[in-house]
Structures are given as C-alpha cells and as structure tokens.
Amino acid sequence: MSKVAVVFKVYPKEGEFDKAMSAIKSKLNPIGMQSEDIGFGIRLIKVLFKFDDTENSSSKIEEGLKGVEGVGEVEVAEETLV
Predict the structure, then answer these.
(1) Can you list the domains of the chain with their CATH numbers?
(2) How high is the pLDDT of residue 5?
(3) Among 5, 10, 38, 52, which residue carries the largest CB count within 10 Å?
(4) Whole-angstrom distance, CA of residue 23 vs CA of residue 65
(5) What is the pLDDT of residues 9-63, one digit of tens each?
(6) pLDDT at 1 over 80
(7) What DSSP line would sit under 23-65, residue for residue?
(8) What does DSSP say about strands 71-81 and 42-52: parallel, antiparallel, or unpaired?
(9) Which of 41, 37, 49 is nearest to 8 (CA)?
C-alpha cells in the first residue's frame, strides 16, 4: 500500500477558465491548484491529488477531470510515490 501524488495539467475550454477552476475545486477536492500562463493568453490549471494506490488510480482521477464542465484536455504532468 503506497501513497501516490499526481499533478495534472488541465486545459480549460476557451473562455471557461474560471468555470473549470471552481468546478474542479468543488467536485474533486484536490490537495492543491494553481494557474499557469503558457503564452498567447492561454492559461492552464495544475491540479495536485494525493491518494492510496489500492483505493484509487490516476486514470480514474483523469476521467473525473475530463468529465468536469469547462475542461477541454487533461494530461498527467508528474506522478510519484510519497
């Protein structure tokens, strides 16, 4: 039984940054969130989750993020045991 920390890069749909940010916070309750400017007025959201690997997986969380209103694309940025 190990603890896993995963950082996801979430790319909101155009014009829906604030909606995506608040929906992720309220529905998935991540440990941490921050926005990052990537250029040309485009911002992404970095989202941190920590979980027990026997109870959850990064792919389940990724699917949950993809189902949030306002979210366009999701990718794993970092994943490690803690």
Answers:
(1) 3-81 (3.30.70.60)
(2) 97
(3) 10
(4) 9
(5) 999 999 999 999 999 999 999 999 999 999 998 999 999 999 998 888 999 999 9
(6) no
(7) HHHHHH--SEEEEEEEETTEEEEEEEEEEETTT--HHHHHHHH
(8) unpaired
(9) 49
Distances (CA, A) of 48 to 22, 32, 34, 37, 52: 15, 5, 9, 17, 14
If 0-12 CB within 10 Å is exposed, 13-18 middle and 19+ buried, where does residue 80 land? exposed
Angle, alpha carbons 38-46-63 (nearest 5°)? 115
The β-bridge partners of 10 are 45, 74
Task: Specify the amino acid at residue 3.
Answer: K
